[in-house]
Amino acid sequence: MTQLEAGEDLKLDAYLPYRLSVASNAVSGLIARAYQDRFGLTIPQWRLVCVLAEDGPATQNQIVARTVMDKVTVSRAAQGLLNRGFVARSDHHADGRSHVLALTPEGARLHSEIAPLALAYEAALISGLTPDEVTLLKRLLGRLQTAAGALVGEAQPPP
Q1: Measured between alpha carbons, how far apart are the two ends of the chain, in Å?
Q2: Which pTM does this prediction carry?
Q3: CA distances in angstroms from 67 to 11, 21, 70, listed in the order given
Q4: Distance CA 3, CA 14 (A)
Q5: Residue 74 in contact with residue 67, Cβ under 8 Å?
Q6: Distance (Å, whole) CA 107 – CA 45
């Protein structure tokens, strides 16, 4: 039952969007410090490296769609990675206004070095959960993301 259904006033600590944001910020902050301290990467840069490692070469628009980061954030992350030689940019064969980003061999090495660290952080974060709880959490987060996506265009909150 939601706070609204229970006839309660809004209580920030019980408000799910707030709790999700706080949890996300705590996890992102922890991981961001590790990536920054050890590898000099921002979270957007790490996400871009992961997308390119997982999906192969992509345009910035494809990365925006895949990561749900805004265009400016992706552009800045790409530029930082280009400057450090982790990513290469080439012309898009069908769209002269677009570029394709791909990991360089140095970028691939960076990914292979960071990926085990990322997985270790994930393991530590979920160590207090059962495998069934982890599966449920991932499923519920997916459903919340889908619901949020469906509400994006609505002018008013649902009844």
Answers
A1: 15
A2: 0.79
A3: 30, 17, 9
A4: 8
A5: yes
A6: 11
Amino acid at 69: M
Q: HEC states along the chain?
A: CCCCCCCCCCCHHHCHHHHHHHHHHHHHHHHHHHHHHHHCCCHHHHHHHHHHHHHCCEEHHHHHHHHCCCHHHHHHHHHHHHHCCCEEEEECCCCCCCEEEEECHHHHHHHHHHHHHHHHHHHHHCCCCCHHHHHHHHHHHHHHHHHHHHHCCCCCCCC
8, two tokens: 């309660």
Mind listing the pLDDT tens digit of every residue in the chain (159 residues)? 665 666 678 999 999 999 999 999 999 888 888 888 899 999 999 999 999 999 999 999 999 999 989 999 999 999 999 999 999 998 767 766 778 999 999 999 999 999 999 899 999 999 999 999 999 999 999 999 889 888 887 645 554
Strand arrangement of the beta sheet that strand 99-103 belongs to:
58-59, 99-103, 87-91
| Per-residue CA distances from 103 to 1, 15, 37, 68 (Å) | 46, 40, 21, 20
φ/ψ bin of 100: left (φ > 0), alpha (ψ from -120 to 50), beta (otherwise) = beta
